Amino acid sequence: MSARSRRTSTTRTRRMLAAAAGLTTIGALVAAIPAPAGAQESRDRGHGHSDGRGHGRTVDVQLLSFNDFHGHLQPPTGSGGRVTRTNPDGTTTTVDAGGAEYLATHLREARKGNRYSVTAAAGDLVGATPMLSGLFHDEPSVEALNQLGLDVSSVGNHEFDEGVKELARIQNGGCHPTEGCYQEGRTFKGAKFPYLTANVTQEKTGRPLLDPYFIWQKNGVRIGFIGVTLEGTPDIVNSEGIKGLKFHDEVESINKYAKVLERKGVKAIVALLHEGGSPASSSYNYNCDSPGPGDGISGPIVEIAKNVSPQVDAMVTGHTHQAYACSIPDPSGKPRTVTSAASAGRLYTDTTLTYDRRTRDVVRTAVKSANHVVTRDVPKAPDITRLIDGWNALAGPIANRPVGHISGDIENPLSEVERPLGNLIADAQLEALAPADKGGAQLALMNPGGIRAPLTHQASGAEGDGVVTYGEAFTVQPFTNMMNVVDLTGAQLITTLQQQVSGPNQGSPKILQVSRGFTYTLDMTKTGADRIVTGSVRLNGEPIDPAKTYRVAINEFLTGGGDGFPVLREHKNKIVGASDLDVLLAYLGANSTPTAPLAPPALGRITVVR
């Protein structure tokens, strides 16, 4: 959930990969921030949509949508590759889901028989991606999204992972500025769909970074799309990557451009918003409108939806990686569809917008929406398979290299305070940076959003069960953040823990994963900073002394105060170490063998009172 700088060694790895695959570097691209045209209108690119003409006063427009794809070209593994369904008898079933080959097939099948169909997304399509995409700066993902027929998307915070210039290249195309093109004579063409940034402006000009809205049209039917990311994006991305930009209030930005669209005669409007909520159930088919509209969902999206202009007819959301299709009342009290399709291409949402040709607006009472599973029991889309196979051939020499062994799944359950994989990563960071010549770290803290996937025991390829490959480790920590060791006082450490559950993190706590020997109690019966039982905070059994200085290993994202931890910017005596990925690789190599695999770490470092 945050931007990351790319490590020099990673660039060398990519160059090694290029050499192994017989590639060449072609020049360097200096990507400029594009001046927005103010809006785009659709060119009928087809995408397999019907060309038939609707008759009568109203026509049904199919809106297919998804969010937080995060470059999952191949099916995600472990718990991150499943969804939960509630059955009619009240029991639940988990279903394996996701994979671009299957997503393309499901979307194309869904479009059949629909004269009017548009496909939209709500950001984080790239960034925090598995190795197959991340190794190539997400060019493979953009090409896949082009092929599966995406028409428009908002940006998310992860679109800023590599900075503004790289976002411009993702949109407009061109070879990477330092690594060039990955194949001789083949230039990356960029996204065929527009990325929208209605609430992101350039400080010098006040103009939107990219187009704020997009008008889709077909046979006289016109629907406007407004795209925004969460206003808090600067708090969760690397500040270097967004210099010169301002991020504005989501509601004000959507309402502003809803008026612009209406002045242009576009009255049917959909907001694409990279911010979301949390339903009361993890089942993708949970009824979050029971007992009343929107009663079963909480989080930032609720207040946003209640304040976005009634001119907006539907909202496609994301960021929280949750699944829901709710009806949250707009400012006039009228229910409005608000959807999210989980993450990693495991679901897609099918929404019917009934368009009135006379009023040029959506008949809100006729809007219907539901999430559908991207099951893996359908044929793979052959064109996406060819695309994946081509990039896999380039990545294979690096991706398939064994780097460690595990005795069972090491999970990263997003709903839990303490996670086995979080413990492992924090332990790896402590072990690497504890030596005096490496920084003398006494403890390590890891932000949970930087852990992107579990480590699964079952083989993902031909490597064998229990073998961890370089590609799998890369997927866990794709940001390649540099590790830092810094001085923090005991008082600052306690404040750090308190900021997990207060300030910007009070509504949605961000619980740092901690290394062995660091323990404390989290009392969830209290509120805000009081949830941290200060007298319980201990290091190797000794109470933390507020006046004492401790050496703490954290990544560079946290050093900059990311994820709502401003106290960490007050650090002193920083030493820069290896990257988080290199640290994880070293730990796996040093602590596991085929005959003595690494076991999932035990829990119990954070005691939770509920």
Shape: globular
- Determine and state the CATH class of the largest domain: Alpha Beta
Indicate the CATH architecture of the largest domain: 4-Layer Sandwich
Number of strands: 31
Structural class estimated from helices and strands = alpha/beta
> What order do the strands of the largest sheet run in, or round the barrel if closed?
1-9-10-12-15-17-16
Q: Provide the helix percentage.
A: 10-25%
**Alpha carbon gap, first and last residue:** 27 Å
| Stretches with pLDDT under 50, minimum 5 residues | 1-37, 43-54
- The CATH superfamily of the largest domain appears as Metallo-dependent phosphatases
> What's the number of structural domains?
2
Q: Characterize the biggest β-sheet.
A: 7 strands, mixed
Radius of gyration from the alpha-carbon trace, in angstroms: 24 Å
Query: In percent terms, what proportion of residues is strand?
Result: 25-35%
How many H/I helices? 13
| Overall average pLDDT | 90
Q: And the CATH topology of the largest domain?
A: Purple Acid Phosphatase, chain A, domain 2
Which helices and strands appear, and what pairs or packs with what?
Layout: H1 8-20, E1 40-41, E2 58-66, E3 82-86, E4 92-96, H2 100-111, E5 117-121, H3 131-134, H4 139-148, E6 152-154, H5 164-172, E7 195-196, E8 200-202, E9 213-218, E10 221-229, E11 245-247, H6 250-263, E12 268-274, E13 278-279, E14 297-298, H7 300-307, E15 314-317, E16 323-329, E17 335-341, E18 347-356, E19 361-362, E20 368-373, H8 382-399, E21 402-405, H9 420-433, E22 443-446, E23 467-469, H10 470-476, E24 482-489, H11 490-499, E25 513-514, E26 518-523, E27 532-539, E28 542-543, E29 549-555, H12 556-559, E30 572-579, H13 580-591, E31 606-609
Parallel strand pairs: 1-9, 2-5, 5-6, 6-7, 10-12, 12-15, 15-17, 22-29, 26-31
Antiparallel strand pairs: 2-18, 3-4, 8-11, 9-10, 13-14, 16-17, 18-19, 18-20, 21-23, 22-25, 24-29, 24-30, 26-27, 27-28
Helix pairs in contact: 1-8, 2-4, 4-8, 9-13
